[in-house]
Amino acid sequence: MEQSIEQTTEVLLCLSPGEAADLKEGINFLRNKKTGKDFILYKSKNRVRACKNMCKHQGGLFIKDIEDLDGRSVRCTKHNWRLDVSTMKYINPPGSFCQDELVVEMDEENGLLLLELNPPNPWDSEPRSPEHLAFGEVQITYLTHACMDLKLGDKRMVFDPWLTGPAFARGWWLLHEPPSDWLERLCQADLIYISHMHSDHLSYPTLKELAGRRPDIPIYVGNTERPVFWNLNQSGVQLTNINIVPFGIWQQVDKNLRFMILMDGVHPEMDTCIIVEYKGHKILNTVDCTRPNGGRLPEKVALMMSDFAGGASGFPMTFSGGKFTEEWKAQFIKAERKKLLNYKARLVKDLQPRIYCPFAGYFVESHPSDKYIKETNIKNDPNELNNLIKKNSDVVTWTPRPGATLDLSRMLKDPTDSKGIIEPPEGTKIYKDSWDFEPYLNILNAAVGDDIFLHSSWIKEYFTWAGFKDYNLVVRMIETDEDFSPFPGGYDYLVDFLDLSFPKERPSREHPYEEIRSRVDVIRHVVKNGLLWDDLYIGFQTRLQRSPDIYHHLFWNHFQIKLPLTPPNWRSFLMHCG
């Protein structure tokens, strides 16, 4: 029988009448001394607005914004995001997010209460008590990166299979050597979960191999605003059993096995995570989510896995000019990785899973032309994170190696059981030392000589198709060679997104400006096929300068997530040009 679950109200902070009266006009930073939680209150005349002192991006702490002369904004100590507390809207990046507000109530004696309205946790519907697990009944085998092969009774489930080829055009390659039987493992799966559309999770080269053997394999994805398989027809991969499921609802596989897909709180339009439950034992996989399910997650699960490495962005390695010296970038990357480690360790400490596994960070910039990125983009060590977790909690940790298998029943019963984790046989190749670049680079290079680019009017055709305008930003796009020098005969042009014009010179009005240098094979492949700009930015295929140094969220969010679902009609374009 389904258990009734209701919304609850939690009192986060109580101020006495005297403390409430002492609130100053403007910004007030407060802490609940019992819980250690921090809050921000903004008082304007008789109205008080309040929120948690936690950045929506990655949970950073806000401090006073010394550049704010009006006393309305605070600055995050992690990435310098700025929040206008008077409106609860982020002003850097502009046009991005709103902060979740708390309910402010005055009691009968003019004391002040901060309340949080908590919706029911969807995983608490129809709760199941953990049942006995036999040894070997639940086994988790690591394959590569974010790909896990789960044996759950007599069912097999696979997460995010990227097992061959590159991701993000040509920027990412597998760090680990997949087990030699990876394709057989995929073919034997009863179901596959793909968390989101990024190509280190949705790998068309991998799925092409799988589709050749099992085109009807059941694949499950969340009902994101940007469909995970938005580019399936264009990819040429023949898959016939893709299932889009709603968020927060248990999907029953058999009497013992069910799963629930949840959205990300920062990127709900494209990112998801998953809870798998077998006989009442939960496995939580937060994948790449920045704030999975808005930060509300089940506690004390049997196994939790998450990303850990950092470095999955072009920032700051691909930036130059202004503050972006090599020294600044090195210091920023070092500090950023440390913040990420602490954030993940704190999350694990708060959720208290029985076992934790860092994954989804095992990639390398192995192409020789990306040597600079490989040397600069230092990533976190999973063992360092696991050691940090062990210092602060009793959580058991597992640093996976390709082909290693964790027996959940043994590890839950006795984490010291020598058979709890079976490592790959001695002599198994763990790290890749060669990659088959040529077939994938040939695909990219084929776009360089396409007839589309014989006509300069492709520029207007493409950006009109893209549909981003009415925004005060001027971008200079420069096609380059491998070393980011101008490509002989390549295009170098300006786009004014205020009126979507293509001027010969920068306009005289005041305007933000970005210069984007892109390797010609990748930018033309992206343009020709109507692909998202993640291949350029996350794939390290650009070099950028900007003035002023502001992240233009609306621009990048559009080109990375919101481009049309169908590519430009280049056939019609060429007929018109002809």
UniProtKB/TrEMBL annotation:
Hey, which pathway is this one from?
Amino-sugar metabolism; N-acetylneuraminate metabolism
- Among the Pfam families in the record, one is Lactamase_B_3
Annotated Rieske domain ranges read 15-113
UniProt keyword annotations, A-Z: 2Fe-2S, Cytoplasm, Electron transport, Iron, Iron-sulfur, Metal-binding, Oxidoreductase, Transport
Q: Which GO terms describe its biological process?
A: CMP-N-acetylneuraminate metabolic process
- Give the EC number: 1.14.18.2
Q: Which residues form a coiled coil?
A: none
Where does it localize? Cytoplasm
User: Where does this chain mainly localize?
Assistant: cytoplasm
GO CC term (a single one): cytoplasm
Tell me which SUPFAM superfamilies the record gives.
ISP domain, Metallo-hydrolase/oxidoreductase
PANTHER family given for it? CYTIDINE MONOPHOSPHATE-N-ACETYLNEURAMINIC ACID HYDROXYLASE (PTHR46522), INACTIVE CYTIDINE MONOPHOSPHATE-N-ACETYLNEURAMINIC ACID HYDROXYLASE (PTHR46522:SF1)
| Protein name as annotated | Cytidine monophosphate-N-acetylneuraminic acid hydroxylase
Species, as recorded: Panthera pardus
Gene designation per UniProt: LOC109252732
